């Protein structure tokens, strides 16, 4: 019909454009993007004129004070690095600590005239430096003009002045660039961008007002400056040691640590707060949420990476992560703790690696590790899900805690091993050690989780056929049995259990538990009758491949005969307490006369357990039984950490800086079978970078010898650390101490 339009069906929306979707940003919310990259910088113009150009353009700036050169005073033996305790860093850049004066030398084209000439030293960090955020800091030479950092002229000689600069004690930690800007009547003239004027500013545990100040010289020397660590593992009653090269001063490690914070997209402005830095880093050291540094693996299959037991230090891990931009394979708890320790010490935060023996992983916060027994007293493995780690490693770092009440600063627990999420990410801490000891589990961060790791009870339940469960035995002293760290200034261990908990049964301990309950932590209150038969399993020192005997001692404390129906199980377990295979089962009936002692001897043949072994070779024995006359339950547990053969490491007794030396590693295969795809690793702080050698096969009974030449870089006592690793034999290590003279 004329004058009317034909209706048109609505068309489908156009298809989305091909390719990747746009990156979502904060633009539109903020005028500039959030600055979270220390590696990106913003170049300042060499000349900034005041006002608009005249008819003939901008006037020349010649004839005024000009900068001829800048000396960062950055050699290791010069004042800056010596006084700031940074001379050991293998870097050609200036590295200083905040809250403490450092010096630079500036040469002008003529003598500096304080009454006439005006200049400033400018420090910038990040891609969008701003004065209000503390990422652009001008420093002036006179007291009349001062910013947040102090400046003063220390010395004047001819055309060169020495400028003393004191960064603010809570300034951002990271890599800065320095400019020198001169004021003229027409504008500002400054130095051009030059990477040689980059400098690093670190936390300062030597300065009282810094939040990481540690007022103990020996502890500070150990927890900031020492590169050689000992990490404790094994079992509570059979402690083993693992040497580790933290290597916090090695070339490239500091840049790798700053890259970790960049990769986390941590705002530059947060990087002066050790609470925020350590919490962010505890998430970034594992790869679970954010493509962080290390991939955890407890499977026993390390085909696509390096076995956790093969690493000798942190340097290779951190440099690989920084260069590949990909998580490094693989880690377990002590590797996470060791690399985290390197990160903390490198940035200047005092830190140490802690080992907690019989560490509970309590994911529901009820402070109980439940072991389920059937009617006869035999362990029900299908229903027993809780596990207790033979040991677990975490870190302590030293800082003030202004967010907590007074008295809860000092040592703080941080843990990078991905166990449970905290605020949605796999991280833990910082949690005050003092808060853990006194039961203040309400304090941030993750205090309740750590409290459970050292205070949980082991509760044995008897499960009847109708499904009801009754507690029959409670062991309140098994978990958190021993907490160790390295002794400051010595290669020995230090028991710090008393820093985490009061002695069992004391008034203080009961008060702590009551305090924890006030904050919602419910401990098992059952108090089942104690059996009148005691059972003890012996402490054994067994090497891999040994046959051995286990003598179970039964003590009848009653005046009547007792008959015990026993169940004795031997399983191979990971150090996390997770069972792999049962290799032994016995169910003897033991009769004990009144007030008598009876021994039950169990023979264990190596062929029974060898084929099931996993790395760290732990055998877990659990004996449970029921007394016929009383119905009481008898239980005992024992972890046997099998000992591996040792690597023999030999180095010349003494050596000199810059003179070639040789380290020799020797190993003999003690087994009748061959070891295949064997990796041997070796390194030493101040001696040699990480090196490794591959051996396709080592036949049974045969030996290998590897000699490696190296040139010591600095004097002092240090160590060569070596490991041997293959699928059939993990955790073989050795070390040699060497003294280097100047």
CATH topology of the largest domain: Coagulation Factor XIII, Chain A, domain 2
CATH superfamily of the largest domain: Transglutaminase-like
Named CATH architecture of the largest domain: Alpha-Beta Complex
Average pLDDT metric: 88
Q: What radius of gyration results from the CA coordinates?
A: 32 Å
Structural class: mainly beta
From the spread of the alpha carbons, the general shape counts as elongated
User: How large is the share of residues in beta strands?
Assistant: 35-45%
> How many beta-strand elements?
42
Helix content: 10-25%
GO biological process, one term: nervous system development
Organism: Salarias fasciatus (Jewelled blenny)
Biased composition (Polar residues): 27-42
Binding site for Ca(2+): 455, 457, 504, 509
What would your notes on this structure say?
The protein is mainly β. It has four domains: 47-202, Immunoglobulins (Immunoglobulin-like, Sandwich); 217-518, Transglutaminase-like (Coagulation Factor XIII, Chain A, domain 2); 533-641, Immunoglobulins (Immunoglobulin-like, Sandwich), CATH 2.60.40; 648-741, Immunoglobulin-like (Sandwich). Helices cover 12% and strands 38% of the residues. It has ten helices and 42 strands. The strands form eleven sheets. Strands 1, 3, 5, 6, 9, 10 and 11 form a seven-stranded mixed beta sheet that branches. The radius of gyration is 32 Å and the shape is elongated. 43% of the residues are buried. The model is unreliable at 1-5 (pLDDT under 50). GO terms for molecular function: metal ion binding; protein-glutamine gamma-glutamyltransferase activity. Residues 10-20 have a biased composition (Pro residues). Keywords: Acyltransferase, Calcium, Metal-binding, Transferase.
């Amino acid at each position: 019909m004329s004058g009317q339009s034909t209706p048109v069906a609505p068309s489908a929306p156009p298809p989305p454009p091909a390719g990747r979707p746009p990156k979502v940003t904060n633009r539109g919310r903020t005028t500039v993007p959030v600055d979270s990259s220390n590696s990106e910088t913003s170049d300042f113009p060499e000349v900034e004129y005041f006002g608009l150009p005249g008819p003939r353009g901008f006037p020349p700036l010649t004839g005024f004070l000009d900068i001829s050169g800048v000396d960062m005073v950055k050699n290791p033996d010069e004042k800056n690095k010596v006084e700031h305790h940074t001379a050991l860093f293998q870097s050609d850049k200036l590295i200083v600590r905040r809250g403490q004066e450092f010096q630079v030398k500036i040469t002008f084209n003529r003598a500096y005239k304080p009454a006439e000439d005006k200049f400033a030293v400018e420090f910038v960090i990040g891609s969008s430096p701003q004065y209000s955020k503390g990422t652009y800091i001008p420093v002036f030479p006179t007291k009349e003009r001062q910013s947040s950092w102090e400046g003063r002229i220390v010395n004047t000689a001819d055309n060169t002045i020495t400028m003393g600069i004191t960064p603010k004690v809570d300034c951002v930690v990271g890599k800065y660039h320095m400019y020198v800007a001169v004021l003229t009547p027409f504008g500002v003239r400054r130095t051009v961008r030059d990477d040689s004027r980059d400098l690093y500013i670190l936390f300062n545990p030597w300065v009282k007002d810094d939040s990481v100040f540690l007022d103990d010289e020996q502890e500070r020397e150990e927890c900031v400056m020492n590169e050689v660590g000992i990490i404790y593992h094994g079992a509570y009653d059979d402690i083993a040691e693992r040497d580790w090269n933290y290597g916090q001063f090695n070339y490239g490690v500091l840049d790798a640590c700053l890259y970790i914070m960049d990769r986390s997209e941590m705002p530059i402005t947060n990087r002066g707060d050790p609470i925020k830095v350590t919490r962010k880093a505890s998430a970034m050291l594992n790869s679970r949420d954010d493509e962080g540094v290390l991939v955890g693996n407890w499977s026993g299959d390390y085909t696509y990476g390096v076995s956790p037991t093969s690493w000798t230090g942190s340097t290779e891990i951190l440099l690989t992560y920084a260069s590949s931009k990909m998580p490094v394979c693989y880690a377990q708890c002590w590797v996470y703790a060791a690399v985290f320790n390197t990160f903390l010490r490198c940035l200047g935060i005092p830190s140490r690696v802690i080992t907690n023996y019989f560490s509970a992983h309590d994911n529901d916060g009820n402070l109980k590790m439940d072991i389920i027994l059937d009617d006869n007293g035999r362990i029900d493995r299908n229903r027993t899900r809780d596990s207790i780690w033979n040991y677990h490693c975490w870190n302590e770092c030293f800082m003030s805690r202004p967010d907590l009440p007074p008295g809860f600063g000092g040592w703080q627990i941080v843990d990078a091993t991905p166990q449970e999420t905290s605020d949605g990410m796999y991280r833990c801490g910082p949690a005050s050690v003092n808060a853990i000891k006194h039961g203040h589990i309400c304090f941030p961060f993750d205090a309740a989780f750590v409290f459970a790791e050292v205070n949980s009870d082991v509760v044995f339940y008897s499960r009847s056929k109708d499904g009801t469960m009754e507690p029959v035995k409670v062991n309140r002293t098994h978990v958190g049995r021993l907490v160790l760290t390295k002794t400051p200034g010595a290669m020995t261990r230090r028991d710090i259990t008393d820093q985490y908990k009061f002695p069992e049964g004391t008034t203080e301990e009961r008060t702590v538990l009551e305090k924890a309950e006030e904050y919602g932590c419910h401990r098992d209150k059952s108090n089942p009758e104690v059996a009148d038969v005691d059972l003890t399993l012996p402490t054994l020192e067994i090497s891999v491949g040994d046959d051995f005997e286990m003598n179970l001692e039964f003590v009848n404390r009653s005046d009547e005969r007792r008959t015990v129906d026993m169940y004795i199980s031997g399983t191979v377990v990971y150090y996390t307490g997770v069972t792999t295979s049962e290799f032994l089962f016995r169910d003897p009936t033991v009769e004990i006369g009144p007030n008598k002692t009876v021994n039950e001897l169990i023979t264990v043949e190596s062929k029974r357990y060898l084929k099931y072994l996993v790395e760290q070779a732990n055998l877990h024995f659990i004996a449970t039984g029921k007394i016929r006359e009383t119905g009481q339950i008898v239980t005992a547990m024992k972890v046997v950490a099998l000992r591996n053969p040792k690597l023999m490491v030999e180095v010349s007794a003494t050596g000199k800086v810059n003179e070639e030396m040789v380290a020799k590693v020797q190993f003999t295969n003690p087994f009748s079978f061959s070891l295949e795809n064997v990796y041997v690793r070796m390194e030493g702080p101040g001696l040699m970078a990480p090196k490794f050698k591959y051996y396709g096969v080592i036949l049974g009974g045969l030996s290998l010898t590897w000699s490696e030449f190296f040139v010591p870089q600095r004097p002092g006592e240090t160590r060569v650390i070596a490991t041997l690793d293959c699928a059939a034999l993990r955790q073989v290590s050795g070390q040699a101490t060497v003294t280097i003279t100047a």
